[in-house]
C-alpha cells in the first residue's frame, strides 16, 4: 500500500468522516485547478466510532451515494486515516542509501520506532530532504498504522467499486489543502503561524501550520453532534429531524439565543483551550491567523466571535475560491460545503504529485 508515492493519475479524494462521505475530483490546466465533480452523502450515527469504521457496508453504501451524486467516472481513490491512529516519526539515515536500502533498514529496525509487531501494521516512508545538522544524512518520515485502520477503508472503497491507490493521513491532507488558502490569509503564508481549527461532527482538531508545514496537532472530543443533540432534547425531535432543522431552519425563535449562541461560545472555548496547549508546548509562539474548517465553521457569526474572543484574525476555509468549476458543479452548493471539504481537497490534490 503506497501512502506517499504515486504516479500522476486522476484520483478521487474520498474523505470518510463521522457525519458524511465527501468525494472530490479535481483536474488541472496550467497552474489552475478545476473542480470536475463532487458529492456528499450523510452517514448514520455510529457508522464511524472514534475515527474507526464500525460498519464497512454502511460506509460503502455512503461512498456509492456520494459517487453517484458526483457523476465521476474515476475509479482510483485516495483515502485518509485519522492522525490519532497513525504513528509518525522523523528519522535520519545516510544520504548515500538508495530507497531500497532505506526500506530494508527500516524493516530491520522497525521495532525501535513502532510499538507493534510488523505483522499488525502497514507502514511507508518518504525521504523529506537533507538533514539540517548533517549534510551527509537525510530526514526520512516514517508513518505506520494498525492494519485494520487501513484495510477497512480499502475494503469499503472496493465494495463501492473504487480502488484505493493511496492511503494518506488526515493531517497531511489538511496541510496539502492549506496551500490553496495562501491568498485568503492577511499576509504571506510562508512567514506565518496559522491555526486550522477543523470542527467536525464529533471531533475538533487543531492543526498549527508554520512555514506551510504542520508543527502541532491536537484532537478533542467536541463537535456539531452536540448541537444536534441539544436541538433534539430541547425541541423533542428525532436525531435525523434535529440534523435537518439545524441545516435548513424552521426552529423556534429562541433557538439562536438559547441553543446556537451557547454552542458557538463553547466552540470558541475549545479552540482557545487547544491554542493554550500549543502555546505552552512551543516556547510561547503565538498564531497569526485562525482558519475555521469543518461543518461547524459555516455557522453564521462564528468567525467573528473567534476574532473578538481571541484577538486573532479568523477566516472560514474555502479551498475552491480560485478554482474553475465544471458545468455539473453547482457553485452555491460547493460554496456551502467548502469548509468541510478541506481534507477531501487535500486528498484529491494527490492526483498532481
Structure description:
The model has no long low-confidence stretch (mean pLDDT 91). The two termini are 16 Å apart. 35% of the residues lie in helices and 30% in strands. With 353 residues, it is an alpha/beta fold. The chain contains ten helices and 16 strands. The chain has helices at residues 56-70, 99-113, 147-159, 170-178, 224-235, 239-248, 255-280, 302-310, 331-337, 342-348, and strands at 12-16, 20-29, 32-42, 48-49, 52-53, 76-81, 86-94, 121-130, 137-146, 163-169, 193-199, 204-210, 213-220, 289-293, 313-316, 324-325. It is globular and about 70 Å long. A six-stranded mixed beta sheet has the order 10-6-1-2-3-16. Strands 13-12-11-14-15 form a five-stranded mixed beta sheet, sandwiched between helices. A three-stranded antiparallel beta sheet has the order 7-9-8. Helix 7 packs across helix 8. A hairpin with a 2-residue loop joins strand 2 (20-29) and strand 3.
